[in-house]
Amino acid sequence: MSALGRLLVAFGRFWWDFLVGDTPELFVAVALVIGLAFALHASTAAGIIVVLLAALGFLAASTWRGRKRAA
Q1: Tally of structural domains, the chain
Q2: Which of 12, 25, 69, 71, by CA, is between 20 and 30 Å from 62?
Q3: C-alpha separations of 55 from 5, 34, 50, 64 in Å
Q4: DSSP state of 21
């Protein structure tokens, strides 16, 4: 493998570990909340409410899942 190929593989592995890391479900949740924010950018009030509820829902689900794993 060439030096450029190794550099690209290392760069990809860095971003995978940085963004996904130990909890890929949080990466998916953040991507979905950002997608909702972009989809609802025209309606400020609805966007605020929906994005806030989605973020709180994902946080609650993640906390519930973490507590279930620990028990």
Answers
A1: 1
A2: 12
A3: 38, 10, 9, 14
A4: T
The pTM is what?
0.73
Residue type, 63: T
Q: How many residues does the chain have?
A: 71
Structure confidence by residue, pLDDT tens digits, 42-63: 988 989 999 999 999 999 998 8
Query: Tell me: the pLDDT tens digits for 13-47?
Result: 999 998 888 788 889 999 999 999 999 999 889 89
Query: Is the per-residue pLDDT at 70 higher than 80?
Result: no
What tokens were used for 33?
A: 């909340």
Domain boundaries, position 66 = 21-70
Other C-beta atoms within 10 Å of 7: how many? 11
Residue 27 lies in a domain: yes
Using only C-alpha atoms, the chain has a radius of gyration, in whole angstroms, of 17
